[in-house]
Structure formats: C-alpha cells, structure tokens
Amino acid sequence: MSQLAQHTDHTGVTQVEIDQRVYDLYDEYCHGKIDRREYLKRAGALAAFGIPALAMATSLIPQYAKAQTISFTDPRIKASYVTYPSPGGNGETMRGYLVQPAGAGPFPAVLIIHENRGLNPYIEDVARRAAAAGYLALAPDGLAPLGGYPGNDDDGRTMQAKLDQVKLRTDMLNGAKWLKAHKLSTGKLGVTGFCWGGGTSNYLATAMGADLQASAPYYGAAAETASVGHIKAAMLIHFAGNDTGINPMWPAYEAALKAAGTKHEAYFYEGTQHGFHNNSTPRYNEAAAKLSWDRTMDLFKKHLT
Question: Is residue 92 part of a domain?
C-alpha cells in the first residue's frame, strides 16, 4: 500500500531580511552556474534598485566555524576517518568520516551525503548529529580521488564538477554497501543527503532496492521515473518552499511514486530557501531545519530500529 502525505509548514521564523533576487543569485552560484566574481558583480548591480545586495550576498557565504552543533570530543560519539574500496568509482578507494555512538553496538546505520562541494564541516557535523542520536554514520567525501575537500566551498564545487558524475554516484553506492556490512552495523540502513546529496539519496533508493530501508532526501533532484518502481525504502522527501530548480520535478516524481505504490511522504517548508538545513549561511531556517531533522530521525527510528 502506498502512503502519501504532502504538507506545507508554517514555521514563522524571522530570518535575515535578504532580497529574494539575492537568494536566486546565490542559488545559481552554489550550483556552479556562475562563479564567485560574477555572483558578487550581479549582486552589486542590484544596488541601483536601492538594495544593499552586495552585503547580503557576502553574508550568504558559509561560516562553518559558527555552525558546529556537536563537538568532535562529545562523549556520546567516537569519530574517525576511514577508507573503503570503491570498485567502479572515481578511485580505487574512497575516504569518509565515520562516527559511531558510544557503546559496543551494533547500531543501525545512516549514510550522510554531502552537497555539490565535498565533505565540508557542515556535513561532518550532521554525521555527528546522527551518531549522537544512536546511528552509525558515514559521510563519504566524493572529492577523495582528487585529494579530498580542499577547505573551501568554491574550490570544492569546482573539483566535484570535474569528476565523472556516474562514477561519483557509484562511490556513494559503495559507501552505502560498506556501511551496511560494517561490523558495528545491524544491517539496517538509511540515507539522507542535501542538494546534490538529496538527489543521490533518491538515486540510492532506486539502486539499492530492498537493501535500503529508508531515505530522506533534502531538496534534491528527483529519481528517474522509470526507476522508481525499484524503490523499496520508505521515502521522506523534504522541499524548500522557494526552490525553482527542484520543486518543478515533484509532480512527475510524485505520480511515479503513487503508481509504484511506494511508501512516501513529502513536506514543503513554506518561506524557506534551498539549503535551509545548512546552518552555516543565512539561508538556514532554524524551525524548518529542526522540524525536518526530527521527522528524519522519526523515519529512521521507525524503519531502522
């Protein structure tokens, strides 16, 4: 039986008052359609309309030092960097950030998939959040074959765009398989990801079939409709309210999920921007981020434990 719930949430959060045109420019920039110089140039041009857009545009650049919510030394977790084989990927091996809860285990497992710029500090923090909630969490770094996340998103975005994208997805698939089989894993697996990682979370649901129990993509590209019938995982799909690059994909994806009888829920968070879960920029919406994460944890609790 299919289960569908589609909701719009009224979060009522007051954000930094940034003009929507600046958010739209930032969306182009963070998806690699324009470079940093062009982004700031176009934002500056909005000053002719009486908008302090350059200051707004600069404020959207990530500030990761302010975004940490779970310390590296938190007693609830133990973190380390690991390597695992990745046949068919961009390199023979992949590197990832593995975070386990305190205790002997085994634990249900969750794969955390980064945006289109590699394993940055925000995604590492998300992995620690998952581990603090009781899950064995792996956050692969898709940039590992090129030396790993370079320490800034601009270079990371450029590096990720140079990779073979089919092989990059294979690297994530291999990470999911490695994590599922880990000695500390119960064998129950969930996945969540953001932006590019959201699209990859949708893809993994089609690629893994019954080997994946739950998937919670955030504002990611829809899975190919022809492959939706392969999904056996429970799907929890998060959308930003203002996201013209992703939201138009939903009607066809929704129709395919219904036709396949796939268990799924979809939430649209009113008034939010693409990237609302990322607490390192003003696109962050605290209420929507918390609500969506609570829902994701509820999904994993129901299907992985």
Answer: yes
Give yes or no: residues 141 and 261 share one domain.
Answer: yes
Together in a domain, 154 and 218: yes
pLDDT at residue 136 greater than cutoff 70 = yes
> Confidence band (pLDDT; 50, 70, 90) for 304?
very high
Kindly report the three-state secondary structure assignment for every residue of the chain. Answer: CCECCEEEECCCCCCCCCCHHHHHHHHHHHCCCCCHHHHHHHHHHHHHHCCCHHHHHHHCCCCHHHCCCCCCCCCCEEEEEEEEECCCCCCCEEEEEEEEECCCCCEEEEEEECCCCCCCHHHHHHHHHHHHCCCEEEEEECCHHHCCCCCCHHHHHHHHHHCCHHHHHHHHHHHHHHHHCCCCEEEEEEEEEECHHHHHHHHHHHHHHHHCCEEEEECCCCCCHHHHHHCCCEEEEEEEEECCCCHHHHHHHHHHHHHHCCEEEEEEEEEEECCCCCCCCCCCCHHHHHHHHHHHHHHHHHHHC
Residues in the chain: 305
The number of folded domains in the chain is: 2
How far apart, in Å, are the Cα atoms of 152 and each of 30, 121, 122, 204? 12, 10, 12, 27
Here the CATH number for the domain that contains residue 247 is: 3.40.50.1820
User: Are residue 48 and residue 113 in the same domain, yes or no?
Assistant: no
200-240 residue pLDDT tens: 999 999 999 999 999 999 999 999 999 999 999 999 999 99
| Token pair recorded at residue 176 | 């999911």
Q: What is the pTM of this model?
A: 0.84
Residue 48 belongs to what domain range? 19-59
